[in-house]
């Protein structure tokens, strides 16, 4: 983590494009689109001014942190947009249920649109935003959060839909949290604001992935005006460049509520005569070459345009695009036995042992 | 009224561009019988009158002209230049949802100022499954309408999830008529666009602002035709390369916004006689590539910005690369473009006695064309040959990207720099160079297909078949409204997209119907 003297201290309108680009990179192909989230943040900052960025250490021990994000169907998000009332109802409900005061907003998922919207929510509430999140990337389900891996029980979940219905859940475990939250969100139009596990700043410490908001902004900034945006991005991420080439095959199918599929990339230039296949379930999950894994979830795999280094979401990948596939290490938390149990390859149905990208793709770093 | 006798065998295509107004006369076999290029005038009418007069000289009997088709960039130019736009009262129905992004957020200030007569975000709207967000707040909408009376030329109404349920927008449309009468134009979002609230809302507001422009252009065409005593059926070219009847165009002027590239793709195809092809329009600075599938331009899936505003118009899928006749060749010949000498080719290029090596020099040097006035120094030989090889590879790459891996389609090349394209391009089965390529836009307007599209979310499972059939009927009905023959209209495209994370499995269907124009 950068030391506090050089750390980014606030987010202004000028930071939003970089934040959005960075969140798209950390979205590993999923996490929802960032465009409408950017407009939401733009409107909120224009009205309420910049948002202060803080670490958990700067917050009072017993103050509540609100980890916020949207839950629902990506397709609905193309038409539905949050109402400004949702976050006020959320704060009120949580403070009343827990008998404590909210002191900060946090993104529960930095990857994709959920990394951008909390900037707006913090601005609305006049609270600071925690420089961190619970994933360090994008994941599809409620239990796939760092607070779960860190061993915190799930105590309370808040859901507020666009109509204004407020639901407070006291689930017995993280799996029930996912099941019931999903059903509640569907009842309210498959689009709701969610606070997962609202707890005190003190208990949150050590259970989140720190620095990811400023990381996203740095990622977005590094490609701005760079002579070689791809090299700049690879350097910033410390990523392995698995392959640079042409998309020659895109296959999509649905099952179990997810869009699954695969993408085949045929190498160009230095990578001529190499072929890499990506397996996808909303996010990019595994990269294979000749049946051998080069990288797999929970390490991050993102497809970027080989010229602009802009991230390409899985639903926008198509034949003929010239792309680079980048992979880099996830937060160490995800590589613990508990982390791999929840988000390792087997959690997504791949019968593979996890191999860290720095070993599996050693040749491409 | 024209009758359906044998003598109505000719049609005229007119393309009103920012610089030139082109016109062509095509016969029943799609052959160019007459053509002209005239300067566009400020009032549009003058250029149209001159172009019509010029092409009519090329035929014996004006009454043989059964149809006139107009392609125009007037709507696009009006938005880009912020000129002649109507004032629009903007209504969104969906609060308390969607309040985090009010209408016209992120619009350029000057465009917002030029268009908005006031904005309202009223309670109402639907969820994805058709349930209500809130009851429609009719009183609030009525008060807003009363407040814009006399100020608004048009009203744009956008309801959340109106592509799924249309009733509320229609009801509000009736209220607009009740409060403001028939003199204001009305745009309802479910008639304009698909799922995607902000883009559909933007498109609907732009459509509302363009009614005056549409009236001017249709008025100009009617005037020049009646001056000649002609009463042909009249049509407008739209974004997808098909036509819409004049009355339809005056309600949906925004649908003409992408007709420029669509017409040149269509025109290139008509002139070359192929239905499935990749089209390259090679200019001085850039080359635009498009794809023709079963006679229609392939549509882009990426969002389109117009005048700085995100929209969801159905635009032709076009990619542009920095290669043209004026493109610079680097010192070592390893890089070409994107810099270009542009319109100074005649002074700067080696073949015209200049000192800047361009792709035109490389093409002439390689014997792909012979023009120019000066010989090329032998020192340049290697550099030009290398540069041309790099350009050939770039053409090949672009063709490959557009081909989506299907190599059996021919490449049709038009434009002033067409000679640069080699006779054999990887990814294309053949290279075709049609005649009359410089009036391809006007030829593309003079086509004879009308289309309609419908977008809906339907349940997967029981009822799916019926729902898809209904969507097909709606698309066909739209095509007939646009002028297609009800007996010959057919479904040309049906895309089913399965949706994730919903309670009941659902599919989004996107249907397009097209058919030949009906004889009147």
Structure annotation, total helices of chain A: 12
Q: Largest interface, and how many residues on either side?
A: A-B, 45 and 40 residues
Output the CATH class name of the largest domain in chain B: Alpha Beta
User: In total, how many domains does the architecture of chain B comprise?
Assistant: 4
Task: Provide a quick synopsis of the model.
Chain A has 365 residues and is of the alpha+beta class.
How would you characterize this protein structure?
- The complex is a heterodimer of chains A (365) and B (520).
- With 365 residues, chain A is of the alpha+beta class.
- Chain A has two domains: 10-212, CV3147-like fold; 228-364, CV3147-like.
- Helix content of chain A is 29%, strand content 28%.
- Chain A has helices at residues 16-26, 35-48, 74-77, 85-98, 117-125, 146-149, 174-187, 201-204, 212-222, 229-237, 337-343, 357-360, and strands at 10-11, 51-54, 64-72, 102-107, 129-130, 132-133, 157-161, 166-169, 191-196, 199-200, 209-210, 240-255, 258-267, 275-281, 283-289, 292-296, 300-305, 322-328.
- In chain A, a hairpin with a 1-residue loop joins β14 (275-281) and β15.
- The longest helix of chain A has 14 residues, at 35-48.
- The two termini of chain A are 22 Å apart.
- Mean pLDDT of chain A is 93; it is low at 1-5.
- Chain B is of the alpha/beta class and 520 residues long.
- Chain B folds into four domains: 1-81 and 214-257, ATPase, nucleotide binding domain (Nucleotidyltransferase, domain 5); 86-209; 320-443, no CATH class; 449-516.
- Chain B has a six-stranded mixed β-sheet with strand order 3-2-1-4-9-10, with helices on both faces. In chain B, strands 11, 12, 13, 16, 19 and 20 form a six-stranded mixed β-sheet that branches.
- In chain B, β14 (304-306) and β15 form a beta hairpin.
- Chain B is globular, with a radius of gyration of 25 Å.
- The A-B interface holds A 35-36, 39-40, 42-44, 72-76, 78-85, 120, 162-164, 182-183, 186-191, 246, 248, 254, 257-259, 282, 316, 318-322 and B 95-102, 105-106, 127-129, 131, 133-134, 160-161, 163, 195-198, 301-302, 310, 400-405, 497-503, 508.
């Amino acid at each position: 983590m950068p030391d506090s003297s050089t750390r980014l201290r606030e987010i202004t309108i000028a930071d939003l494009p970089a934040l959005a680009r960075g969140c798209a990179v950390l979205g590993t192909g999923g996490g929802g689109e960032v465009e409408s989230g950017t407009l939401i943040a733009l409107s909120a900052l224009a009205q309420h001014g910049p948002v202060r960025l803080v670490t958990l250490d700067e917050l009072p021990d017993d103050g509540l942190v609100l980890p916020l994000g949207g839950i629902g169907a990506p397709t609905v998000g193309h038409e539905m947009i949050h109402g400004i009332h949702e976050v006020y109802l959320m704060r009120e409900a949580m403070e009343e249920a827990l008998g404590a005061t909210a002191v900060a907003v946090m993104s529960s998922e930095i990857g994709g649109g959920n990394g951008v919207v909390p900037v707006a929510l913090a601005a609305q509430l006049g609270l600071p935003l925690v420089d961190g999140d619970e994933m360090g990337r994008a994941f599809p389900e409620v239990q796939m959060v760092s607070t779960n891996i860190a061993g915190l029980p799930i105590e309370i979940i808040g859901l507020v839909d666009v109509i204004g219905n407020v639901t407070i859940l006291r689930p017995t475990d993280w799996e029930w949290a996912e099941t019931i939250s999903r059903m509640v969100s569907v009842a309210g139009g498959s689009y709701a604001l969610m606070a997962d596990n609202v707890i005190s700043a003190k208990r949150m410490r050590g259970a989140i992935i720190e620095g990811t908001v400023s990381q996203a902004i740095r990622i977005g900034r590094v490609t701005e005006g760079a002579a070689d945006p791809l090299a700049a991005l690879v350097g910033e991420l410390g990523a392995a460049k698995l392959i640079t080439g042409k998309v020659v095959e895109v296959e999509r199918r649905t099952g179990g509520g997810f869009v699954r599929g695969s993408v085949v990339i045929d190498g160009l230039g230095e990578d001529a005569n190499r072929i890499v296949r990506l397996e996808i379930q909303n996010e990019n999950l595994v990269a294979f070459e000749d049946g051998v894994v080069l990288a797999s979830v929970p390490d991050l795999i993102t497809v970027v345009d080989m010229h602009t280094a802009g991230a390409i979401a899985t639903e926008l990948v198509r034949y003929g695009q010239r792309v680079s596939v980048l992979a880099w290490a996830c937060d160490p938390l995800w590589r613990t036995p508990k982390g791999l149990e929840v988000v390792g390859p087997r959690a997504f149905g791949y019968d593979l042992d996890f191999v860290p990208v720095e070993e599996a793709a050693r040749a491409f770093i | 009224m024209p009758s359906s006798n044998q003598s109505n065998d000719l049609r005229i295509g007119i393309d009103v561009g920012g610089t030139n107004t082109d016109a062509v006369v095509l016969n029943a076999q799609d052959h160019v019988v007459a053509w002209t290029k005239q300067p566009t005038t400020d009032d549009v009418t003058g250029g149209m009158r001159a172009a019509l007069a010029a092409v009519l000289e090329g035929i014996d009997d004006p009454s043989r002209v059964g149809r006139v088709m107009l392609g125009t960039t007037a709507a696009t130019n009006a938005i880009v230049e912020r000129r002649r736009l109507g004032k629009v009262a903007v209504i969104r129905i969906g609060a308390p949802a969607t309040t985090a992004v009010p209408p016209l957020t992120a619009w350029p200030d000057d465009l917002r100022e030029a268009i908005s007569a006031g904005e309202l975000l009223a309670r109402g709207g639907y969820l994805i499954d058709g349930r209500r967000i809130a009851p429609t707040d009719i009183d609030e909408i009525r008060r807003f309408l009363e407040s814009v009376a006399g100020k608004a030329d048009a009203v744009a109404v956008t309801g959340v999830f109106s592509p799924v349920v249309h009733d509320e927008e229609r009801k509000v449309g009736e209220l607009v008529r009740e409060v403001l009468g028939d003199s204001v134009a009305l745009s309802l979002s479910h008639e304009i666009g698909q799922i995607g609230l902000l883009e559909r809302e933007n498109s609907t507001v732009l459509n509302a602002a363009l009614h005056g422009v549409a009236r001017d252009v249709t008025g100009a065409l009617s005037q020049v035709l009646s001056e000649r005593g002609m009463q042909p059926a009249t049509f407008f070219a739209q974004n997808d390369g098909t036509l819409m009847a004049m009355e339809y165009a005056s309600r949906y002027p925004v649908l003409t916004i992408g007709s420029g590239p669509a017409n040149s793709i269509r025109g290139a195809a008509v002139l070359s006689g192929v239905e499935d092809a990749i089209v390259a329009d090679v200019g001085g600075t850039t080359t635009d590539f498009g794809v023709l599938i079963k006679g229609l331009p392939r549509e882009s899936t990426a969002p389109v910005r117009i005048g700085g505003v995100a929209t969801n118009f159905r635009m032709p899928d076009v990619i542009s690369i920095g290669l043209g006749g004026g493109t610079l060749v680097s010192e070592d010949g390893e890089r070409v473009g994107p810099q270009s000498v542009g319109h100074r080719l005649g002074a700067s290029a080696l073949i015209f006695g200049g000192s800047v090596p361009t792709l035109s020099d490389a093409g002439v040097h390689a014997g792909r064309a012979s023009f120019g006035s000066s010989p090329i120094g032998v020192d340049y030989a290697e550099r030009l040959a290398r540069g041309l090889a790099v350009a050939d590879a770039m053409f090949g790459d672009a063709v490959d990207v557009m081909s989506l891996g299907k190599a059996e389609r021919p490449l049709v090349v038009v434009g002033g720099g067409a000679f640069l394209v080699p006779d054999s391009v990887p990814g294309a089965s053949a290279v075709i160079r049609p005649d009359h390529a410089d009036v391809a836009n006007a030829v593309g307007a003079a086509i004879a297909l009308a289309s309609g599209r419908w977008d809906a979310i339907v349940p997967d499972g029981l009822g799916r078949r019926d729902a898809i059939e209904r969507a097909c009927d709606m698309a066909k009905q739209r095509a007939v409204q646009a002028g297609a023959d009800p007996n010959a209209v057919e479904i040309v495209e049906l895309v089913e997209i399965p949706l994730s994370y919903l309670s009941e499995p659902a599919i989004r269907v996107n249907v397009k119907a097209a058919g030949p124009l009906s004889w009147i």
